[in-house]
Design goal:
The protein is α/β, with parallel strands linked by helices and 380 residues long. It is built from 15 helices and eight strands. Strand 5, helix 7 and strand 6 form a beta-alpha-beta unit. It is globular.
Length: 380
Amino acid sequence: MQRFVFLMLILFSLPASRALAQTTGQGRVEVVFCLDLSGSTNGLIDRFRDHFWDYTYSMSKCNPQLVYRFGIVGFSRPSFKRENGYVKVLKDLTTDMEAVASELFELKTSVEKGDQLVGHALLACNKNISWSEDSSVVKILFVVGNGLVNEGGTDFRKATQELYAAGIVVNTLYCNTKTMNTIEIGGWKEIAEIGKGYFSSFSVRSNYYTSTGSVDMKKLHALNDSLNNTYLYYGASGKERWQMLWDLDRKIYFSNPQGYIYRSRFKISTLYQKKNSSWDLVDLLFVKGELKLADFDPVYLPEPLRTMNEEEFRKLLMKNKVNRARFLSEIKNEFAVQDRAASEDSTVTGKRMLTFDTLTLKIIHTILEKKGYVCEAKKP
C-alpha cells in the first residue's frame, strides 16, 4: 500500500503532458511552419526541403516516443491572392510526412516580390489549421520571414495572443538579408514574447558541409531501390503515391545525401512500415491476411498484375512480402554499423551553424524537454 501511494505521488508530481506520455507510452506534438515566401527569403524552401527528413530523424530520438503532425502555411506570394492576404495553407497538420515533403518540392523556389502581411499569416495559422483541442498535445508554431510585422491591417498582437490562448507556442525566426534591420527585428521579437516562444535570426543563404559518416551511399541507394520495388500499388491514388515514393527518394538523394540517409531511416521505421495499406498491396496483406485479385479494379493495378491469375497474384504478394522483410533487415544492419562507428568516434558532433533547420530543431527540443521529454542531440 505504501508503495502504491509513493508511485501515485510521483505520477501526480509530473507535468500533465509527461504523465500522459508515460501512461500511454507516447506523446503528441504538432508543428506548423509559417513561411515568408517572398523574394527577400529566396532559398528558404530549398533549405527546408533539403533538410526536411532531419526533423523526422530528430523526433524519433525523443523519449517517450512521439506521434507528430506537421503543417505548412505560406505567405507573401502574389499567387496566394490579395483577398486571402497573400496567405495559403499549403498542407494542413498531418502525420503523412511524404505528403508534406512532396508539397515542399512542388513549390516554386523563388519569386521576385511579395507583400508580407504577417498579422494575416498569424490569423490564418489559428483559424485555418486543424490544431488539436487536446490540451496535452504540444503545439508549436514557427513564423519565419522578415519585413515589418504591422502591415496589412490585421492586428499581429491580437492574432498572437489568440494563438497562445489556444495553447500554441509562437516562435519567430528573422531572415537576415545583407544587414540586420533593427526596426523590423523589434516586431518579430515582440511576437515571440507574446507567444511565449523563442526568437532567433539566421541567414537563409548559409550552407554547410553535410556528412554521410560511414554509410556506403551506393549500397544504401541500391537497397532502397530494391525495397521500393516491393511496393505494389492499387486504387485510384495508388500509382500517384507509388511515384511519390520514388520521386522523393530521387530528389533528396541528389540534393542532400545526408537527408537521403534520414529519409531512409524514416522509411524503415514503424512510422512508415505497414502504414501504407491505403495504396500498397503488401501492407494491405498485413492488415487483411488474405487478398484476392478479383477484388481489385485492374485499371488501377501495375500492368503485370492485370493478366495474372489468382495463384500467380498470391505468389507475387508473398514474394514481395518476404523480400521487403529482407531488404528492411539489410538496411537496418547498415545503419547499425554506422551508429556503432559514430558512437565510437569522439570527434563526431552535431551541427552548430545557425541555419533554419538547426535553429528550429533546437527550439523544438527545448520546448519538448520543458514538457518532460528527453531528446538526444542528433549527429551528422
